[in-house]
Structures are given as C-alpha cells and as structure tokens.
Design brief:
By secondary structure, this protein is α+β, with helices and mostly antiparallel strands. It contains three helices and five strands, in the order ααβββββα. It has one domain (3-101). A hairpin with an 8-residue loop joins β2 and β3. It is globular, with a radius of gyration of 13 Å. The two termini are 25 Å apart.
Length: 103
C-alpha cells in the first residue's frame, strides 16, 4: 500500500464533513500529514514492535495524539508519544472518523 492510497481512504471518509478546518475541534488542513511508516510499540507489551502508517498529528510539536493506519488490518487507531520519544499504540477504532472522534 502507498501513502497516496491511504490519503484517498481518508479523503473519501472526509467527504461527509462540511468543514475540514473544524472537525471535532481540529483543523485537519494542519493536522493531517503525508502518511509515513513508523515503528510503534504495543501499549500492553513493550517488546511487541511493528510498523504502522502515521497519518495525523494532533499538535504541531508532535506531543499530542497520533492517528495511524494499519495496512494489514485496514483500520485506523490512536497512539501517543512516550517520554522516551517512542510511539505507543493505544488502540484501534476502525475508520478514520471513528478514530478521530475517539481522541
């Protein structure tokens, strides 16, 4: 899967939103990023490390929530950055919008 294909999935879901500058309190024109593969740790097992596509950063400094896409399961989920600068997977929610609304 490519970053462009992931962007298309998100774009399709966002068609139901009337204003992407204020979706659930976030300006998606600033929060959505070019999907990039990054290493994530399982919140329940720090030895379980895997790659997911990061698609959204809640804050510009990178310290807020992240939304990722799991290409194997075709679902989106939430993550946070640990105090050691590691990405921690805190759960998957299915669609992009369901994940966004779960923040």
């Amino acid at each position: 899967m490519t970053s462009t294909e992931i962007e298309e999935i998100i774009k399709t879901e966002l068609q139901v939103e009337p204003d992407i500058t204020n979706v659930f309190g976030l300006d998606l024109t600033k929060c959505l990023i070019k999907p990039s593969r990054q290493k994530y740790k399982n919140a329940n097992d720090s030895t379980d490390i895997y790659e997911l596509w990061t698609v959204l950063e809640e804050t510009e400094d990178g310290n807020g929530y992240k939304i990722y896409f799991d290409e194997n399961n075709k679902i989106f989920g939430l993550a946070i950055k640990s105090d050691k600068d590691e990405l921690i997977d805190i759960g998957s929610y299915g669609s992009f919008l369901k994940t966004l609304y779960s923040m």
